[in-house]
Amino acid sequence: MAAPAIEFQEVSKSYMRRFRSVEVPALSGVSFEVAQGEVCAFLGPNGAGKTTSMSILMGFIYADQGRTRVFGHRPGEVKAKERIGFLPENFAFYRYLNAEKLLDFHLRLSGRQVPEPAALIGELLVRVRLDRYKGLKIGKYSRGMIQRLGIAQALLGNPELLVLDEPTSGLDPAGRKEVRDLILALKAEGKTIFLSSHILSEVEQICDRVIIIDRGRVVRAGPLQQLLSSGTTVEIVVEQLPQELEPAVNERGGIIEREAGRVRIIADAGQKRALAEMLWAGGCDVISLSPVKSSLEEMFLKLVGEGNAQP
Amino acid sequence: MKIRTIALNTFGSFLRNKVILLFSSLFACVVLLMMSPLLAYNAQTTAANALQMQGLILNEVSAVITMVSAFGSLLAAWAAADSLSSELKSGTILAVMARPLRRLEFLAGKYIAVLMLMLVYVFAMLGVTLLLAWLGGQRYHTALWTLLVYPMVRYAIWAALAMLLATLIHPVFVLGIVVLLATLVHVLADASSSIPAFVRIPGHLLLPMTNLLSEERFLIITKASVKPFPWTGHVTALAYGIDYALVCFVLAAFLFQYRSLTRD
User: Fold this and answer.
1) Residue range A6-228, CATH number
2) Which of A64, A84, A246, B180 has its CA 20 to 30 A from that of B100?
3) Which of A169, A133, A146 is nearest to A95 (CA)?
4) Alpha carbon distances (Å) from A290 to A34, A236, A258, B92, B160
């Protein structure tokens, strides 16, 4: 069986405040795995420990406790990094280089042997729509252009695992869609993608799994579909609902929404049998009975609390 | 290959570094200013005052060379400290260190870039020294390699020491500490100073005694006063310098291996 792409086992990390002997815990016993070929979102409010986890994963900082592995290797090891493409949050660059030179610099560091480096770089610049600006100094790039360039450099080494910290940060809606499509294309190629994002609707569209972290602890992890359908609400759709049945439905906590040609009843899952039987007995034609999927945003807010609304 | 890539990129950044360019320009201005009295002395030299003028000229040349050498030490220290801390501060190090690159390779690339910068400086310094001696009507009686290798080893020490300090503190503090250490070395090297043994001995053991690597040990800029200096003397002095620089670099690599790379 292939080793997981990412493995965190009981990882803890604290920071010491400068000039004070105060220890600030950033991660407390964080455990999760990301299988090869998965697209996994890493979500949490600001200060939850996302960037700390990603920094540990990349070998930029060391965990105080626990075990971390990337394709079975320790983070920071050359063998692990050979298989990773990384986009840091707020990608920083050498302002005096242009896009071509920056990518050439990163290609040399990646150790990837390609017959025609210029052709590969040109191809990547086309993919992120920067080919027209390849000669322009990066210092003159807009925020969105820099982010796209960051994505191009992450793809340079043809990595098996992409670690993307806020990949759509600073992009306009069109740019965000392009990145989303790019991630979906990479997913189709079988790449493993581990990303953090503030835009939960996007995460819903592209991710297979979600890990939610809050105050340095994993509060929920699992396949996205399973997490979203684990709600306690059901939706019953009937063709018509006689007025005399409405009090009985309301009595069982049902919320009635009348629409053209049908009536939706939203109720607690515990009442679904009683409600369905009552509706059948009352002569209603039940069209469907299904669990109500909550949105990722609803689930996120429920888990981390309204006070931490910023994902 | 990867070390070379880091070194060339860092060297390129030095050539665009505003602080380095500003200091180099100021330095060139000061050297040019100091040349004018030298030319004046030379023009005023007659058969009657030749010896007196030669003394003035030699003093002037010596002052310029000391200044050039001291500036080189500061340049080496600043370049080394800034090359490391600017990457940490700006966050450019994150994308670089995400590549299959060891921290030691990154640090070695940075260090080699500083040595490349100092090599350019040493050649320029040699040019200035020869020019000054020629303007003063004097000639160097030594092999040119000593005028290249000795300052390079000196600067290698200061660069490695600065790199070591930069893994811990801000480059401005690094520069301050380097100035302080250089002053201490100068005081300790002065045989006439009455420093107690409990300060002098640890000082000699711990501080980079760059006076051992000074050209003045085997060279005096006069027509016929080259001190005899055996090849074993060169080997010992240079080995000391290289060893000191290597120890500092290894310590810097050790500290860098375990420090956080996230933005300071």
Assistant:
1) 3.40.50.300
2) A64
3) A146
4) 30, 7, 17, 50, 69
For an interface test with B, the pick among A94, A112, A151 (most B C-beta atoms closer than 10 Å) comes out as A94
What are the structure tokens assigned to A203, written together?
């995460």
Domain ranges of chain B: 2-258
Question: Which residues lie below 8 Å from residue B157, measured CB to CB, with a gap of 6+?
Answer: B208, B210, B213, B241, B244, B245, B248
What's the distance, CA B203 to chain centroid?
A: 20
Q: Which amino acid makes up residue A133?
A: Y
What does CATH list as the number for A233-291?
3.30.70.980
Domain boundaries, chain A: 6-228, 233-291
Do B166 and B93 contact (CB within 8 A), yes or no? no
Task: Average the pLDDT over B230-245 and give the result.
Answer: 82
| Set of chain A residues whose Cβ sits within 8 Å of the Cβ of B16 | 96
Please indicate whether, in this complex, the C-beta atoms of B95 and A86 are within 8 angstroms of each other.
yes
Contacts of B29 by beta carbon, 8 Å cutoff, 6+ apart: none
| Residues B79, B42: Cα–Cα separation, whole Å | 37
Phi first, then psi: what are they for A127, rounded to 5°? Answer: -60, -35
Two tokens, residue B223 = 């027509």
Per-10-residue mean pLDDT of chain A, 311 residues long, equals: 85 80 85 91 87 92 92 91 89 86 91 87 88 85 84 90 87 82 87 87 85 88 75 81 85 83 84 86 85 73 62 52
Question: For residue A267, what are the β-bridge partners?
Answer: A234
Residue B204: both structure tokens together: 């000699």
Residue of chain A whose Cα is closest to the Cα of B94: A88
Q: Which of B16, B92, B101 sits opposite A92 (nearest CB)?
A: B92
Task: ipTM value, please give it.
Answer: 0.79
Give the DSSP letter of residue A4: P
| 3-state helix vs strand vs coil in chain A, percent to 5 | 40, 30, 35
Sign of the C-alpha dihedral, residues A293, A311, A60, A105? Answer: positive
pLDDT tens profile B72-120? 888 999 999 999 988 888 888 998 999 999 999 999 999 999 999 999 9
Name the residue facing B99 among A60, A88, A109 (closest C-beta). A109
d(CA B9, CA A97): 10
- Sign, Cα dihedral of A144, A145, A150, A155: positive
Residue B220 has pLDDT above 60, yes or no: no
- Cross-chain residue pair A92–B96, CB shorter than 8 Å: no
Radius of gyration for the alpha carbons in chain B, expressed in angstroms and rounded: 20
**Beta-carbon pairs below 8 A across chains A and B:** 78
Between CA B86 and CA B263 the distance in angstroms is: 10
Question: CA A258, CA A243: separation in Å to the nearest integer?
Answer: 12
> Contact at 8 Å (CB) between B148 and B126?
yes
Euclidean distance between CA atoms A121 and A124, whole angstroms: 5
Contact A170, A147 (CB under 8 A): yes
How many CA atoms are closer than 13 Å to the CA of A274, on its beta-carbon side?
Answer: 12
Instruction: Name the H helices within B190-230.
Output: 197-206
CA separation for the pair A206, A279 (Å, rounded): 38
